[in-house]
Each structure stands twice: as structure tokens, then as C-alpha cells.
Description:
- Two copies of one chain form a homodimer.
- By secondary structure, chain A is mainly β.
- The first copy, chain A, folds into two domains: 1-48, SH3 type barrels (Roll); 51-258, Fumarylacetoacetate hydrolase, domain 2, CATH 3.90.850.
- Chain A has helices at 64-74, 149-154, 159-163, 206-213, and strands at residues 2-8, 11-18, 21-27, 33-41, 46-47, 56-58, 87-88, 94-95, 101-103, 111-112, 115-121, 137-144, 147-148, 168-175, 184-189, 192-198, 224-226, 241-246, 250-258.
- In chain A, strands 1, 2, 3, 4, 5, 6, 7, 8, 11, 12, 14 and 17 form a twelve-stranded mixed beta sheet that branches.
- The radius of gyration of chain A is 18 Å and the shape is globular.
- The mean pLDDT of chain A is 96.
- Chain A binds chain B through residues 52, 54-55, 57, 60, 81, 83, 85-93, 104, 126, 155-157, 159-160, 163-165, 213, 215-220, and chain B through 52, 54-55, 57, 60, 81, 83, 85-93, 104, 126, 155-157, 159-160, 163-165, 213, 215-220.
Amino acid sequence: MQWCRFQLGDEISFGIVEADHVIAIEGTPWGPHTVTARRHSLTQIKILIPVVPPTFYCVGINYKDHIIKSAQRKGIEPIFPKKPDIGYRANNALCAHEEPIIKPADSGETFQYEGELVAIIGKQGKKIPKEKALDYVFGWTIGNDVSERTWQRGDRTMWRAKNADTFKPMGPWIVTDQDYRKMTTIIRLNGKEVDRFATSNMIHDVETYIAEITKYITLYPGDVIWMGTDGMPQNMTAGDVCEVEITGLGILRNKVIAES
Amino acid sequence: MQWCRFQLGDEISFGIVEADHVIAIEGTPWGPHTVTARRHSLTQIKILIPVVPPTFYCVGINYKDHIIKSAQRKGIEPIFPKKPDIGYRANNALCAHEEPIIKPADSGETFQYEGELVAIIGKQGKKIPKEKALDYVFGWTIGNDVSERTWQRGDRTMWRAKNADTFKPMGPWIVTDQDYRKMTTIIRLNGKEVDRFATSNMIHDVETYIAEITKYITLYPGDVIWMGTDGMPQNMTAGDVCEVEITGLGILRNKVIAES
């Protein structure tokens, strides 16, 4: 099943996506809701980010190839994380499918995509055992963890390197009843494939992260966990179109534009 | 003026605090709202965290004494941040005035308070000049940035060291029309004063942070910025009561209890 969040006129709703149209619901996909009679063509509506998360979790480094290649670039030995220490991103940075990624005027050349699987939490939980972790995932979407590497290296935190406005495209929708272990992530820059990896090729998998986070932290419906990226991202410049596809989930597409 | 967020039965409202009672409003303090006829004694209501922030910003190290004393403890030279790089905390960790701080079963001895001034954003802004920054602050409240130091040192991020459930007491209410440069922060453990500092004795002040953040990031109404702590926090154990007072704002009081 495919769920989206959309705007038509002034009204914002969640909806069920079927083929070329959406059926509006009242309520939330993961909570009590009723299906309305409002049915719109996908061409009529504006797709919004599929959820405004109460907390926005993000795995920094979770794929071996990405760590090895980043280390090679820096001329250092790769260090793999021994524990699933979760990190955070900020809601201000979220932008929807087909919205522009705005490259700040003073950002540098190493302005890069990172295609990521996103788990969307569907019910509240704490101390969730690993074997039940996926029961707490409502569905999946796609994220692009846009990163400015000069700031990432030079700043004490990743506030602007990864959280400047529009640096976190997410969407286009939430897909349920999919097995993330069977997905492939494909990244295209201006239509050309630049990366492809098995989505589940993680150092610490989704279940491990959920079990570890909830030892100390309550997860709530709508929370998102971005699962990290593999491969070696390339630079993007103004005018570039970046697509992150995850098989079974769809394509998240955003054009880079220069800050005016 | 004093604003709070409170619960009575199943209903959650913002309200105006006057002496020993609260007058409920419909809407938000920083947005369109109407004052209702509902008036309750403060003893009748449950005080909630004064806002659920869209984004939860937090300054890590922003007072010289704190940095010097932390460095002395570790036997290293103090390093002062040259730039106002902002950080983040997580909403799951927020807890209200008089709610317990739950010390996790496997946490260590160095479980500490950090008393902090909290700026609450009242209107949306980007590229805010320093001299107009305080126009975007709706009011002020108090935060306690509870920290587990073993995890803070050993983990790759501060996810559980500073963001475990209940580690972020905030409240009791929001006070407007106060000059933060004239405030004093006082911390008491079991009624005994353990720290006192000029709230404005910051390395980078509130105006500087707001100007810097909004070079890249849009601030939204309800966002909070925790401004860091001074001094050398002491350990808390189960049964301890921690009070953070900021003159003109009130007292944030929380008891530590052991995780059962």
C-alpha cells in the first residue's frame, strides 16, 4: 500500500496512492483514520514530505564500501562503527519530491547526494526486542542526505553541512508491506547511474538500530530513521537533477539550484 | 507575561499564568489565539513542557568556566569554540517541571545536571541580522541538559548520553519581556546551591547564534535553542532533587528516580 501527504489549495491531507490518483483520508496512516470521497489525480496535487517527524534520527555511517572509500579519499585507515550509535537531523532541512535542493551561495564544490532508505515508525515502543522491531515500522520511504563536505570536516557539528534548508529531500511516499532486505538503491545524476547497492548491505541493520535505540529512547509514530548510504557520492552543481530510486519504493527526484 | 502549556483531564491547552491560576487560550501564544473563560488553579492542572519544538537546537559548549573546568578534569588544555556551531537534542527526551528524571539502570555515576537558558522562537525567520535577532525570540524558559558522561565520552554521538527518555527537563513556563543579559542561573541539589553564574556570560550570545543559524536554516515558531551551561556539574543519584532557577523565569524542579 502507498501513502502520501499532499496539498490541494490550502488543505493538507494524508492519502492513499492508487495508480495515477490519490484518495484523501482524515487522520494519519498509522492512527485512526477514515477514507474520504475526495479523489484527485496525482497531477492535480502537490506532494509534500510524507511525514513531519517528531524526532528525525539518522545513521551516519552504516555501509562498509562508503567507509572504505571515504577513508581512501582522506588517505586514512577505514574505521567501522562497533556500535549502532544513532544521530539526528533537523526538520527545517526536509524538502519534498520535486522540490529544489538549494545550494547555499557560500557552499563549496564537494556538495553531494547520499541515497538512503528511511524507516517510518508506526507505533510507540520502548525496549523493543530485535525480533519484533519490524512490527514497529509502518513503512518505508527514500531520503537524500545532501552533504557539504568542507563544512562537514571543518565545523564542530553537522548543523549546516547536513541540515541547511532543503538538504534533506524525503519521499515521494510511504510504501508498506515491503521487505527491505530485497531492495536495491540506485542513484542517478542527470539520468546517468552513479551508484547502485543492495539496500540491506548495512553494518547494523534496521532491527538492530530499533532494538538499541529503544533501550533508552521511546520511538513514536511518525519518527523517521534514515539508514545511511553506501558507495562514494559525487559532487552536484546547480542544474543537476539527482534521483534516488529504491526498488519497490519509487524514485525521489530533486533538482539542484543555486541560492539567489 | 507568563505562558504555560497544561493538561486538565484529556485536554491540552496553552494558558496565561497569573499568580496562582491559569487562563486557557485557544491557539498558540506566538500565533493567533483567543482567551477563553476557562480559569483553573495551578494546583488543579498538570504543567506540561511549554512547547513541543519542531526543531530542538542546543549549544554544546558556550561558557568559559565550564570548558576550563571540564578540561582540568580530563587533564587537557581547554579549547574554546571559535564559531557558533549549533547542535541538536531529541524531543523524546523532554520532560516537564516536577516530572521525574529516570536514571537508566545501566548508567554510571557521572550522571549530571546542566542548567540552561532556553530561547523560544516566536516567528519564522531566515538571514536574521544580529541586531534584530531578539525580535524573533518569543520568550524564555529553563532547561536541564541531563548528561551521562561515560556514554558522552565513549559513544560516537550523544544519543543516549544526552537524549535518553526524561534527560531534557524543560519549563515550567515561558516568560516574555525579560532581558536575558540581567539574569542569574542558580542550580540547587537537594536544596543546596551548587552553582551560580551570570546567564549572559556566554562565549557566543543568543543574538550571534540566531544570526549564524539563520544564514542557512529557517527558524520556526516553537523552535527552541538551549544556550549551554557554565560551572562544573556534580553527580546526581536516585532520590536527588535538582532545581534550576533563572532569575525572572522561575524554578525548574525534577527528582531523579532509578529506572525500575
